[in-house]
Amino acid sequence: MIRCLAFSDRGMELARRIAGALGGSAFRSGDPLRGAEWTKKYFSRSEALIFVGSCGIAVRMTAPLLRSKAEDPAVVVIDERGRFAIPVLSGHLGGANDLARRIAGLTGGTAVLTTATDVTGTFAVDSWARIHNASVLNTRRILPFSRKLLSGASAVLASRFPFQGTAPAGIRFTGMDSEDGNEDPDSVPDAVLDYGFLPGFPPAGGNVRGAEPLLLVPRVLTLGIGCRRGVSAEQIEEQYRKFLEHTGFREEAFRLAASIDLKQGERGLLTFCQRHHLKACFYSPDRLRQVTGVRSSSDFVKEVTGVDNVCERAAVLAASSGAGPGELIAEKFPGNGVTLAAAAMHYAPDWRDHE
Q1: From CA 249, how far away is CA 319, in angstroms rounded?
Q2: Has residue 299 got a pLDDT over 80?
Q3: What's the DSSP call for residue 276?
Q4: How far apart are CA 294 and CA 306, in angstroms?
Q5: First to last CA, the chain
Q6: What is the maximum alpha-carbon separation in the chain?
Q7: Quick one: which of 6, 163, 209, 248 has the most CB atoms within 10 Å?
Q8: What gap in Å lies between CA 183 and CA 174, rounded to an integer?
C-alpha cells in the first residue's frame, strides 16, 4: 500500500491526486494522527510513504524507525506545487527512485535522483533485482559490486539462467550452462543469481577463491506438500529443513505452497505457510490428475485422495503459468508424516529497465 501524508490544504489536494493515480490513500497530518504518530503507525506496514512537504520533516519523522535497506519502505518527498519529487529512502531496493519518476510524471515535475548509479547511468543491481522479483540476501555486498562498476571495472555475474538482451556496460558472465553469453567461465563471481547454491560457491562467508559474492535469489519456486491428517506445523517445519538441506535450495526462493483441496483445513499446514509467508494454493484431484511430468506414484495415496501423488503434482501445477508449465526440480521427499516436492516457474531475466 502506498500512503501519502500532507501538512496543508494545498498539500492535501496534491496528496489526493497522487494517491488516486497510484492506487494509494491520502492523509492529513493531525486528522486524527499527527505526522510523527502517523509515520510510526504506517512505516512498517506500507510499500511506500509519500510526504507532501519538506525533506526535513520526512527525515525527522522516519529517522527513528529505520532498520535496513532490505526492510525499510520507499520514502519520497514532493513539494506542495509538485515541482520536485525526491526519493530519500530505499531508492533501489524499495523502489523510491522509480516512484519519484512516476510522481514527477503525474505532476509535470522533476525527479531529483542523487544515487551514484542513477547520476552516472551505471547499472544498479539492487534496482534490477527488485524489478525481477529477486531477493538480495546480503545487502552489504551491493556497495562493493556497484563500486566496481562506478570505477570503470567489470563485475562478473554467475547465473543459473540465460539472459535476454544486451548486458549493461561492465557486466560479464560465468557459471552458465549455455554457451550464449558465457563470457568469462573461469572468473570469480561478484554476484550470483540462483535459487540454490551454484556449484563451487557456498551459501555465505566467502570461498577459497575470493570474497562472498552478492547473492540474488529469484522467488520462482513452489513447494508441493502432502501430509497426513492432523500433522503439526512443527512436523512440516522439521521436514522442510531436511528438504532444504537435501536439495540445496534457498528458502527465500519459495513463493507458493500447494496441496490438494482435502488439506485446505489442515491447521498445521496453514500455520506453516503463514510462518514462511507462503501463499497456500489448493487444487482438486481432477486438476492434479491432469499434471504431467511427475515421477512418483502411490496406490495408498490414490486410494485416500483420488490422485497418485499430491506433492509433485501440486508443485508443478502451482508453478505453471501463461509463460509455460512448471518444471519439477525436486521429486517427492517423504518423512515425518509429510511429503515435499519443488517445482520452478518459468523465469527469463533480461536487462530492461536497468537504468
Answers
A1: 16
A2: no
A3: T
A4: 16
A5: 25
A6: 69
A7: 6
A8: 7
- Chain-centroid distance of CA 341 in Å reads 21
Q: Is the pLDDT of residue 198 over 70?
A: no
Q: 2-114 has which fold? A: Rossmann fold (3.40.50)
DSSP state, 335? E
Q: Mean pLDDT over residues 24-42, rounded?
A: 94
Cα–chain center distance at 101: 21
d(CA 69, CA 77): 18
19 touches 4 (CB < 8 A): yes
Q: Is the peptide bond before 32 cis (omega within 30 degrees of 0)?
A: yes
* Residues 131-218, CATH architecture: 3-Layer(aba) Sandwich (3.40)
Is the predicted pLDDT of residue 44 greater than 80, yes or no? yes
| DSSP reduced 3-state for 316 | helix
Q: CA 271, CA 237: separation in Å to the nearest integer?
A: 10
Encoded amino acid at 83, one letter? R
What is the reported pLDDT for 118?
Answer: 84
Torsion 289-294-299-303 (CA) sign: negative
pTM of the model: 0.81
The CATH code for residues 221-344 is 3.30.420.180
87-139 pLDDT, tens digit each: 999 988 899 999 999 999 999 999 999 888 888 888 899 989 998 999 999 99
How far apart, in whole angstroms, are the C-alpha atoms of residue 269 and residue 208? 40
Q: What is the chain's alpha carbon radius of gyration, rounded to the nearest angstrom?
A: 23
> 486438476: which residue's cell?
287
CB 350 within 8 A of CB 166: no
